[in-house]
Amino acid sequence: MSLLTGDRKNEATCPNVVKCPTVISMVGLPARGKTYMSKKLTRYLNWIGIKTKAFNVGEYRRAATEAYRTHDFFRADNKEAQEVRQ
């Protein structure tokens, strides 16, 4: 039985997979292939039967801070923005 998906078809391909979720974090300089490698790794792991998802934290951060895209966010007298920056 596959430990992650609950079916028997992948028993031989990934016998050493642990039951708990695993996080692989890619960090480094811009434009060095982090997204490319994470997508390739996700595709391979899904192909061998390990359910995998890739998340781009940069996209999440940009969406979460949409309201703070002006220079007013960095003003010293903006108490709300100061709390968010903390």
The CA-CA distance between the termini, in Å, is 46 Å
Rounded to an integer in angstroms, the radius of gyration calculated over CA atoms is: 20 Å
Write the element-wise H/E pattern from the N-terminal end onward: HHH
Structural category:
mainly alpha
Q: Strand content of the residues, in percent? A: under 5%
- Strand segment count: 0
Q: Give the proportion of residues in helices.
A: 25-40%
The total of helices stands at 3
Mean pLDDT: 78
Name the overall outline.
elongated
Biggest sheet descriptor: none
Low-confidence stretches: none
Organism: Mytilus galloprovincialis (Mediterranean mussel)
InterPro entries: 6Pfruct_kin (IPR003094), 6Phosfructo_kin (IPR013079), P-loop_NTPase (IPR027417)
GO biological process, one term: fructose 2,6-bisphosphate metabolic process
Keywords: ATP-binding, Nucleotide-binding
Could you explain how this protein is built, in words?
The structure is a single chain. The chain has 86 residues and is mainly alpha-helical. The protein has a domain at 33-84. The protein has helices at residues 34-47, 57-64, 79-85. It has 3 helices and no strands. One of its GO terms (biological process) is fructose 2,6-bisphosphate metabolic process. Pfam families: 6PF2K (PF01591). It comes from Mytilus galloprovincialis.
